[in-house]
Specification:
The protein has 102 residues and is of the alpha+beta class. It folds into two domains: 38 residues; 47 residues. Helix content is 35%, strand content 25%. It has one helix and five strands; from the N terminus they run αβββββ. Strands 4-3-2-1-5 form a five-stranded antiparallel beta sheet, with no helix packed on it. The mean pLDDT is 83.
């Protein structure tokens, strides 16, 4: 095999890896969207205590609920409530505390 043929084969393989990676990313986004679409979100009042995190395995952070936005949980920043701020952030995972000790 000549160097030109070998280099061309390597380029084609790399291009294939890029395509596979792109497809995997798109499939993951679709799975996440489908998962969100299946969830029936509870009606929560503003300033409801809620636990949130962005990644599985992370510790839960205490926040006050602001709203749902496109099935994402939005909470006021840094543990503040609507009384003291209007700034908010989005969170991937959320749950209601089981007790006041969480």
């Amino acid at each position: 095999m000549t160097n030109a043929v070998l280099n061309n084969a390597i380029k084609n393989i790399n291009a294939l890896y890029d395509v596979v990676g792109e497809l995997q990313g798109r499939l993951k986004k679709l799975e996440d969207k489908e998962d969100r679409d299946l969830i029936e979100l509870p009606a929560l009042a503003v300033d409801t205590q809620i636990l949130v995190r962005d990644h599985e395995g992370e510790d839960w952070e205490r926040r006050y609920f602001k709203c749902w936005d496109n099935k994402s949980c939005v909470c006021f920043v840094n543990g503040a409530a609507s009384w003291s701020t209007s700034y908010a952030t989005y969170w991937k995972y959320w749950k209601l505390p089981e007790s006041n000790n969480e």
